[in-house]
Amino acid sequence: LLDNYPGETTWDLVDQNGNMIDSGGPYSEAGGSVEATWSLSVGDYVWTIYDAWGDGICCGFGEGYYELSMFGEVFASGGEFATEDIVPFTVESQIIGTIAGTASDGDGSPLEGVSISIGGNEEAMTGADGSYSFDIAASIYNMNASKLGYDDDNATGVEVSEDQTTTVDFT
Question: 0.85 exceeded by the pTM?
């Protein structure tokens, strides 16, 4: 989000060899929004935002800010800086697999609204047919299925491989 003086704001993205990947600005819409998306290879990068006046994009003349995200997670944010804010980051291999399955009661009837978690973080919720599916980084996981009024079920040592679907059913 830009501040009240968007004409002062520019940014650039360079790779580990100093090659310019992309750049933007100056801008014209005070308080405007700027979005950019890149398909980056594995490697090191530096994203830099500049303010020509030297007062950043927050907070003296507007409430500007930036956020950088990768694989759905914000890894850098800010707005309070002087002439520049430099954000080095690394794109690591993101090898993805899928975990899918069903949750059913003791009689084999599908259960809707079962929370499927890994490490206490909910990854999915079963639908009306008792099924769930989600993509996740290849690794080995311990999973939990829980629904109020039912005993929890656990699966340990669930191995997820690249571009493969691992089936885990809960009862």
Answer: no
* pLDDT for 86: 97
Give me 31's structure tokens: 């308080």
Q: Each residue of 40-97: pLDDT tens digit?
A: 888 999 999 999 999 999 998 999 999 999 877 899 999 999 999 999 999 987 778 9
Which amino acid is it at 43? G
Any idea what the Cα angle at residue 70 is, between residues 69 and 71, rounded to 5°? 130
Cis check: omega of the bond before 58, within 30 degrees of 0: no
Taking the C-alpha atoms of residue 80 and residue 53, their distance in angstroms, rounded to an integer, is: 13
Dmax over Cα atoms in the chain, in whole Å? 69
Task: State how beta strands 165-167 and 96-102 pair.
Answer: parallel
Selection from 73, 77, 115 nearest residue 94 by Cα: 73
Measured at the alpha carbon of residue 57, what is the angle toward residues 55 and 58, in degrees to the nearest 5?
90
DSSP calls for 67-109: EEEETTEEEEEE---SSEEEEEEEEPP--EEEEEEEBB-TTS-
User: CB of 106 within 8 A of CB of 94?
Assistant: no
Residues ≥6 apart with Cβ < 8 Å to 50 = 9, 10, 11, 12, 25, 83, 84
Name residue, tokens 């003296």: 60
Beta bridge partners of 20: 14
